Amino acid sequence: MTPPGFATIDFETSGLAPSRGARALEIAVVHSDADGVVTGRWDTLIRGDGPVGRSDIHRISRSALAHAPTFAEIAPLLLELLRGRVVVAHNAGFDIRFLVAELDLIGYRFTSPLVSLCTQRLARTYLPGMRRSLSHLCEVIGIDLDGAHRASVDAFATAQLLECYLANSADRSGFSELLERAAAAPLVPLATAGRAWYPRELARDDSRWPAFAEYP
């Protein structure tokens, strides 16, 4: 049986640490097959009850979140999108901390360790000597990062970075082992149906409240 593949994620958040009260404002998920070829993309804003933080960076306003689903409402689809896949992120520790913290707030616990990869750490092997920020690595390789600090843009760029690593891997045994481990221990789904995801485009066009200036 072929493992499902990779799920690259990116969060935009109200701060740097969930332990200090920062919350998720947006998440994107990009599916890739075992060769790193992108096969699907999803993203949504997330409504919380706190401040949005640095809107000058992530360009998310309070009004943009007015009709977005809560994390509890997007979690059923999120877990399904991650199910059986290696979870990938750039600076994965940051995104996985928020993933675990947000799931913890709705009472969800992982039954086995999350299988993950960090493209920032892998740069030491595949792009040695380079600065390891996502923007610099994308510039070096030629990946479009127009609109950075939007979850869908950063997650897609990270997925393309992963594909470059895979294409230049002489021995994929490490990747294959992680794919098999993730497929053998899929995440337990939530029984609730949740709500449809609400990407920025819907927020921009939502007629229930005026357009907002934060979106380019």
UniProtKB/TrEMBL annotation:
UniProt KW Nuclease keyword: yes
Keyword Isomerase attributed: no
Any one GO molecular function term: exonuclease activity
Residue ranges annotated for the Exonuclease domain, each copy included: 5-171
Pfam families, per database record: RNase_T
SUPFAM superfamilies referenced in this protein's UniProt entry, alphabetically: Ribonuclease H-like
Stated name of the protein: 3'-5' exonuclease
